[in-house]
Amino acid sequence: MFRTLRTHWKKSIFFSCSGGFLTKYLKERWDDRQLMRKFCFEAKKLGDFPLKRGEQPRKVAVILNPVAKKGKASIQFDKWCAPLLHLAGVEVSIIRTEGEGQAKEIVENFSTAENPVDTLVIAGGDGTVLEAITGLLRRSDALELTRRVALGVVPVGASNTVATRLFQGESGSVRNMLEATMAVIRAHIRPLDVIKIEAEDSPKPPVYAAYQIRTGPFQDVEMEIPKYWYYGPAKRFLGYVTAGLKGVQRSAALDLQLEYTPPCSGCSRCQGFLAEASPKPSAPEASGASSDSSSSSRPWWQRWFNFSLSQLFASSRSLNKRGFGTADEETVDYSKVDNPECDRWREVFLFGTTDLLIRAMGDGTLSITAGKNQLPFQEFVSFGRELKRRILTFDHPLVASAFKAQRLRVTPLSTPSGQQRVVSSTEQQAEEEAVLEEGTGGKHRNVTIDSEQFELRPFTLTLLRDRIRFCY
Predict the structure, then answer these.
(1) Which InterPro entries match (predicted)?
(2) What's the pLDDT tens digit per position in 275-325?
(3) Using one digit for the tens of pLDDT, what is the confidence trace for 418-453?
(4) The whole model's pTM is what?
(5) 260 is in which domain, residue-wise?
(6) Which of 314, 316, 294, 312 has the alpha carbon at shortest distance from 303?
(7) 305-325 b/e with 16+ CB inside 10 Å = b?
(8) For position 451, which CATH number holds?
(9) Cα 86–chain centre separation
(10) Which of 308, 280, 101, 303 is closest to 191 using CA atoms?
């Protein structure tokens, strides 16, 4: 046998590699099926649970981007996500988008009077999630609507940064989709911080992000890596090697001016946007009155037993959404709290930075990390390879400067001295029309907002704490 393998070594290597890939593929499919089976039993168990008197079945509206992931999004949703929702007894209405930007228009014009729903599910990639959240928070009744309707996300797109942050499994994996769908079924709702992004020189309305903003040479390479798909597992390594040989880490480095205010737990100086931020549960008296009227027809001993239980567990229900403190803490009068550091802007200059990452940490702060400058080729490739596996923290070797903030202004500098670039009136008009437009839209540097590319221009970020309610 050894002699045969030695004689036909090319065929032996080919069939060994093919057998290894086939075994791995079958193992992954088997694991996916077993996980689907487990969640189907759980969804059916929740669906068979009897409803209370007067309680209506849950209604969910799904905004599905069928062309996401090269047209596979609709197939993936119908195969893995829709069966779980139906087994759980959820009434599902699907709204399919037909073009870029339509998800934003659908959410802006969505009528809860004509289509009353409990949860609005976004089935797509990061672009669809960004459009839906932006459309929701641009509405005139956004504050009231976010109190009544929760958001869910089903990651069936090519890029799923937001879903990967919230749920288990790799981006686009079956486990990631199933975990996200079960979060909608279980209805575990928690508040989520949102980043408000405003262009300083544009009259256009703001854009809202759920996770991060990033710019710099590392992010430029990350957006180019999918083009090397034919290299398989080695595409990330070869992408950074190619960019490093071209000197991207030096030629694409950024000069930025950052102005920020430190984090604040709430005071009279920031009361304006704090009041805009937190959706509180609406009309508790009305819900309590309906429950009292429905229980009035029950025997006296049932009413007394329910009343005793409500008094016994009152303290546990008084916890807020995050599980920190009680509901009494939410009624703090911030107009009587003074924090002189809240609106005091501080300034930081970054010259030749290779990475600027801004993230909503979920603790009421923005985390800002700036990468080192003058990175040699070997370190650029080494750090780039591990970016997907390791999140940048303050103690990461790549990080040269790090701090936390509540508001942040980012101003790109054309030169280290801060002199502005001189452009003609035609170029200036073309640039103004491209400010924070979806897509790359121009020859200038880009910034990614939840993995979607925008043109890098001066902009201001404001963290809106607990702005939307999310299923995760």
Answers:
(1) ATP-NAD_kinase_N, Diacylglycerol_kinase_cat_dom, Lipid_Phosphate_FormReg, NAD/diacylglycerol_kinase_sf
(2) 454 444 433 333 333 344 344 445 544 444 444 444 444 433 333 333 333
(3) 333 333 333 444 443 443 343 333 346 889 999 899
(4) 0.79
(5) 212-267+344-465
(6) 294
(7) eeeeeeeeeeeeeeebbeeee
(8) 2.60.200
(9) 26
(10) 280
